[in-house]
Amino acid sequence: MFNRSKLALYVIVVLTSPTALMAQDYQYHPILSDNFTASLGFMRSSNAFKLESDRLGDLGDDVDFDDSLDVSDHSTFFNGQLRWKFGSERKWSIAGQYFSNSANGDAVLEEDIEWNGLTFGAGTFVESEVKIAVTRLFVGRSFFKNDQNDFGLGIGLHNLDISAYIEGEVIVDGESLGGVERAEADANQPLPNIGGWYNYSPSRNWLLHARVDWISANIGDYDGSLWNASAGVGYQIWRNVGIDLAWQWFGLDLKVDSDDWKGRSKMTYSGPVIAVNFNW
């Protein structure tokens, strides 16, 4: 009987110890104290695209790919992020982010559109597409960090891969060529940026967070500005798993003077991001 009681007590201790340890493992949200955080989410974005392109660099008006070409102004796409904290008191960190989107549409033109040296005539049917892929790398240091707060600044890099095309019937000297032509433009460029973040945990399960990246510079064939900002709230379900709801805004206004694209790109993506976070 005594042995059975000891066995039962041992089983209870073994089964309840992880729960007890987990309950005492952290007082505030564990993302603030853990080394690694991975976020897998999806963004429901409201999009706006205005682009110019001319082979000779003789730019005219922006082409609104949403209003004029009926390119979809809403998209749902993957948004992934990763962060590693290291060094003394985990004050240094390396973060990454990746998202991409492809939006397309078709329309009967209400007016002539000039794009990359070609004129697509009013009343003709055209198809079009805008693609973007963004890879973000960021190195930062926390300057105010404790159990509840984490504020830091750093420098980073956004690699932008942008492409667009319009395909339809082309007009030359007021007459249709009687066939379908495609005018394409693309650009790929890494752009450096500065940025900062602030995270605050009011209790063990809740986290409020915000960050912003920015650049305005003339670099090589590219001249313009970029903003990448987000703010949100996270809730920890288990010790190493949580959910997050944030609002992200990505804005780009970039002039391009390269062999593949002479023009300008004005693009915005904004909307909610729902994600599952893993921290350890």
Description:
The protein has 280 residues and is mostly beta strands. 9% of the residues lie in helices and 69% in strands. It contains one helix and 13 strands, in the order H-E-E-E-E-E-E-E-E-E-E-E-E-E. The strands form two sheets. The protein has a ten-stranded antiparallel barrel. Strands 5-6 form a two-stranded antiparallel sheet. The chain is elongated.
Structural class: mainly beta
Number of helices: 1
- First-last Cα distance: 43 Å
| Low-confidence spans | 4-24
Indicate the radius of gyration in whole angstroms: 25 Å
For the secondary structure, the number of strands is: 13
* Main beta-sheet strand count, sense and barrel state: 10 strands, antiparallel, barrel
Concise synopsis of the structure shown:
The chain is mostly beta strands and 280 residues long. The chain is 9% helix and 69% strand. The model is unreliable at 4-24 (pLDDT under 50).
Topology at a glance:
Elements: H1 2-25, E1 36-53, E2 63-64, E3 74-86, E4 92-108, E5 113-115, E6 118-120, E7 125-145, E8 149-172, E9 175-200, E10 206-219, E11 222-238, E12 241-257, E13 262-279
Index terms:
9% helix; ten-stranded antiparallel beta barrel; 280 residues; 1 helix; elongated; mainly beta
